[in-house]
Specification:
By secondary structure, the protein is mostly beta strands. It has one domain: Rieske Iron-sulfur Protein, CATH 2.102.10. The chain contains no helices and 9 strands. Bound molecules: FE2/S2 (inorganic) cluster (FES). The site of FE2/S2 (inorganic) cluster (FES) has 10 residues, from loops. This is Rieske 2Fe-2S domain-containing protein. InterPro entries: Rieske_2Fe-2S, Rieske_2Fe-2S_sf.
């Protein structure tokens, strides 16, 4: 059984931007890349800490990578792989995004 949670204004999320979404005790990073909405658990594979929180920017200074604000790991927003940092080569856990009647939803068990 999946939980379904609306991602508010996902369709209006600017290309290449990312935001934090909190659902119950879970945190997700949601980004739009090449017109596609992608989501990852907001949990760094290095020390299992939240990469970022609402008061911090989610992306690096150039806006190209998802950034962990603890030790600076950078992750591709396309596939969640860590391209540099202490967990290089590991991945963010991808979350399932569904679209229903034009709205985007996070789907998780
Ligand atoms: S906890 Fe993310 S880089 Fe260390």
């Amino acid at each position: 059984m999946f939980n379904k949670h609306l991602i508010p204004d996902a369709q209006n999320l600017p290309e290449g931007k990312a935001l934090n979404i909190k659902v119950a005790e879970y945190n997700f990073l949601v980004t739009k890349q090449k017109g596609q909405i992608l989501a990852y658990e907001n949990l760094c594979p290095h020390q299992k800490k939240q990469l970022t929180w609402s008061s911090n920017p989610t992306l690096d200074d150039d806006g190209d990578y998802l950034k962990c604000h603890h030790h600076g790991a950078l992750f591709s927003p396309i596939d969640g792989v860590c391209i540099t940092g202490p967990c290089q080569g590991s991945h963010l856990k991808k979350a399932t995004v569904g679209i229903e009647q034009g709205n985007c939803y996070l789907l998780f068990a």
